[in-house]
């Protein structure tokens, strides 16, 4: 389960989208759009180049969700080769213009709304109450012209300090999402900076708008579908319910706020004084730079030399998402401990794997998922299905941008069909893993025990670059030193690390300082 936190020390306001986040009305909109478009496409004489297939759930997500009504009409029909005039607000209902068909959709929506009973999601009020108790102001920010009506009917009109809806946006001439104007207007009315405000959204267009607007935290809400479409649109985190959002002072920071480890070497030395160091290092993107072809990755010479020095004076473990055997062959240094498949496979300095049966029961599902994914993604140029013993990685680094959504949603769909598996995301890779409470963080702690290094005099030092490494960074946050390797791909995401470095080469330079300190250089 993914959870996230809103920090009253950093976040002064929270802007909520309404449909699908606060009120259970996204499905009412989706049904109204379908009624409109299916009838329109069935009645319209077919012209060359037009696609008259029925409106689908994917069309809703891609072309209309979160957008102003007229944009939704024109964007969806445009995707089907049908260019209608924009029209004007005076157009008759049903006229073949953006406004005319938009009005018809609105009639269908209101018809359905009139018979809807419970509109408010049960998890909305507890979160908003908690925000209020912490002095955080709230806004509802919706493209809908029915926003006030829906809130009234849901009994939620009093929940928000500010409302910026489709009616106000029209009055002010604000463009709709994915432009950030409505969010920025709400932040202005709440008297807060975008960077100190949180946006909570369920639509890709809304997430994009919040990202473009420079909002401090963008929380995606995927109550039913997969989280990946919102992550790809730029959400910092995607939860499946508002009950997964807490409000308290937190210690995660933005990458840009984390001090550079080389600059703060003296602080690190202070923290190491008199303690036994254990080094735990991720491989791809951390020791070795990212490459387009995962099979071509090799340990850089500098990293190899420094690890060879370090292993003579302190325990060193490699914690990788790669298959155990794969990462061992790439590192090839005697005396190291290893965790492969994101911690599901473990090995000591000898050749024998350490028994850890956490993922065994998921093996048949991984086999079946591998067969399905290999055949479904075989036609997608650049998609690469990589089986490890306890994980299945689908790489999309070399996939055309237009095919990326398809690849991710295929993995999500197939992953969802196997109860024993869960989905994780990394750098241009989506992976299926055994769905048990085990990750790099748990594996790290388990390895420390196994290595005989678990006392208060031990300081675990972990370095990693990716989302899955955050489990390990979080695990050692209170008793160790966490180092994150920055990358352009991760922008300014949140991290549990204490220090950062620019790239794998800078990490090797930092590790060389550890080697000097330990007296081996
Ligand atoms: O935990 P790690 O050691 O960092 O492994 C995570 C994944 O790393 C590899 O994929 C990543 O690196 C590739 C080579 O540079 C790159 O092409 C890909 O886009 C990255 O996601 C590895 O291939 C995966 O199996 C690991 O899970």
Protein topology:
Blueprint: E1 4-6, E2 13-16, H1 26-43, H2 57-64, H3 69-79, H4 98-114, H5 124-133, E3 137-141, H6 147-154, E4 162-164, H7 166-172, H8 181-189, E5 197-201, H9 204-212, E6 217-221, H10 228-233, E7 237-239, E8 245-247, E9 253-254, H11 265-272, E10 276-281, H12 301-310, E11 316-319, H13 324-331, E12 337-340, E13 345-347, E14 353-354, H14 363-377, E15 384-388, E16 391-395, H15 401-416, E17 421-426, E18 429-434, H16 440-451, E19 458-464, H17 469-475, E20 481-485, E21 494-495, E22 499-501, H18 504-517
Helix pairs in contact: 1-4, 2-3, 3-4, 12-18, 14-15, 16-17
The chain binds the ligand O=P(O)(O)OC[C@H]1O[C@H](O[C@H]2O[C@H](CO)[C@@H](O)[C@H](O)[C@H]2O)[C@H](O)[C@@H](O)[C@@H]1O.
EC number: 3.1.3.12
Catalytic activity: alpha,alpha-trehalose 6-phosphate + H2O = alpha,alpha-trehalose + phosphate
Enzyme class: hydrolase
Describe this structure in words.
37% of the residues lie in helices and 17% in strands. The model has no long low-confidence stretch (mean pLDDT 93). A hairpin with a 2-residue loop joins strand 15 (384-388) and strand 16. The chain has helices at 26-43, 57-64, 69-79, 98-114, 124-133, 147-154, 166-172, 181-189, 204-212, 228-233, 265-272, 301-310, 324-331, 363-377, 401-416, 440-451, 469-475, 504-517, and strands at 4-6, 13-16, 137-141, 162-164, 197-201, 217-221, 237-239, 245-247, 253-254, 276-281, 316-319, 337-340, 345-347, 353-354, 384-388, 391-395, 421-426, 429-434, 458-464, 481-485, 494-495, 499-501. The chain folds into 4 domains: 4-21 and 117-250, Rossmann fold, CATH 3.40.50; 26-114, no CATH class; 254-358 and 438-517, HAD superfamily/HAD-like (Rossmann fold), CATH 3.40.50; 361-434, Alpha-Beta Plaits (2-Layer Sandwich), CATH 3.30.70. The strands form 5 sheets. It has an 8-stranded mixed β-sheet, with helices on both faces. The protein is of the alpha/beta class and 521 residues long. Helix 3 (69-79) packs across helix 4 (98-114). It contains 18 helices and 22 strands. Its EC number is 3.1.3.12. Its cofactor is Mg(2+).
């Amino acid at each position: 389960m993914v959870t996230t936190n809103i920090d009253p020390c950093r976040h002064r306001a929270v802007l909520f989208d309404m449909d699908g986040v606060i009120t259970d009305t996204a499905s009412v909109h989706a049904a109204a759009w379908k009624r409109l478009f299916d009838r329109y496409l069935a009645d319209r004489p077919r012209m060359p180049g037009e696609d008259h297939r029925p409106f689908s759930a994917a069309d809703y997500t891609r072309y209309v969700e979160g957008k102003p009504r007229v944009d939704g009409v024109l964007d969806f029909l445009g995707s089907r080769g049908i260019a209608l005039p924009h029209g004007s607000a005076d157009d008759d209902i049903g006229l073949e213009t953006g406004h005319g068909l938009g009005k018809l959709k609105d009639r269908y929506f209101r018809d359905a709304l009139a018979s809807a009973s419970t509109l408010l999601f049960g998890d909305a009020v507890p979160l908003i109450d908690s925000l209020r108790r912490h002095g955080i102001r709230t806004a509802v920010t919706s493209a809908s012209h029915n926003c006030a009506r829906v809130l009234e009917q849901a009994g939620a009109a009093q929940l928000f300090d500010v409302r910026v809806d489709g009616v106000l946006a029209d009055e002010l001439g604000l463009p709709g999402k994915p432009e950030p104007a409505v969010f920025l207007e709400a932040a202005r009315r709440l008297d807060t900076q975008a960077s100190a405000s949180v946006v909570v959204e369920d639509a890709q267009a809304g997430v994009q708008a919040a990202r473009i607007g420079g909002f401090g935290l963008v929380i995606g809400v995927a109550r039913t579908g997969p989280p990946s479409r919102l992550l790809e649109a730029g959400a910092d985190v995607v939860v499946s319910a508002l009950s997964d959002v807490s409000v308290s002072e937190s210690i995660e920071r933005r990458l840009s706020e984390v001090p550079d480890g080389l600059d703060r070497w003296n602080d690190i030395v202070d923290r190491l004084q008199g303690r036994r160091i254990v080094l735990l290092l991720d491989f791809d993107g951390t020791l070795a730079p990212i490459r387009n072809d995962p099979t071509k990755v090799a340990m850089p010479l500098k990293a190899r030399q420094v690890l060879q020095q370090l292993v003579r004076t302190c325990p060193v473990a490699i914690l990788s998402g790669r298959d155990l055997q794969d990462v061992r062959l790439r590192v090839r240094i005697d005396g190291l401990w290893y965790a492969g498949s994101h911690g599901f496979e473990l090995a000591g300095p000898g050749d024998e794997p350490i028994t850890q049966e956490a993922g065994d029961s998921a093996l048949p599902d991984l086999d079946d998922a591998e067969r399905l994914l290999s055949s479904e993604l075989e036609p997608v140029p650049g998609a690469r299905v990589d089986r490890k013993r306890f994980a299945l990685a689908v790489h999309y680094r070399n996939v055309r941008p237009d095919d990326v959504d398809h690849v991710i949603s295929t993995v999500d769909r197939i992953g969802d069909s196997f109860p024993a598996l869960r989905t994780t995301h990394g750098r241009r890779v989506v992976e299926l893993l055994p769905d048990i409470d085990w990750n790099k963080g748990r594996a790290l702690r388990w390895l420390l025990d196994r290595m005989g290094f678990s006392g208060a005099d031990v300081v675990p030092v972990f370095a990693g670059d990716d989302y899955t490494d955050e489990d390990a960074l979080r695990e050692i946050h209170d008793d160790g030193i966490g180092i994150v390797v920055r990358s352009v791909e991760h922008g300014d995401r949140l991290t549990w690390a204490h220090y950062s470095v620019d790239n794998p080469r800078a990490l090797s330079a930092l590790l060389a300082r550890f080697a000097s300190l330990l007296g081996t250089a």
